[in-house]
Design a protein that fits this description.
The chain has 120 residues and is mainly alpha-helical. 65% of the residues lie in helices and 6% in strands.
Amino acid sequence: MKANEWLEKINIRLGLIPNKDIEDKRLELVSYYRACESYLTNDMRIAIRNEDVKGFGVLVSRLTASNPDGTVARRDPGWEELFDFEIKFGEYLEMKNKNVKTEDIIKELEQPKRVSMRKR
């Protein structure tokens, strides 16, 4: 419990995002996921599992067709829901990954110091 409190204080001091805000964003992402779940392909699910927003975006962009002049001719059903999820997915991962370095520092500080066992 104490480590989590310190981590939260360090994150705030460094201008990072509180864990509660990250959890709130994750819950928001879940609602967007449910809205687009029926449109997800296996490749999209793999991209989500791998936290690959760019790969997911490429798959979503394939659901549009363009006219020769570059305007959108059509969008497949579910494109809007998937696009909305892609935006929220990116926001969530950005928030989540911003604090990883601080967590790594804390873990490193909690490790016992190594003692050199060199013989002289």
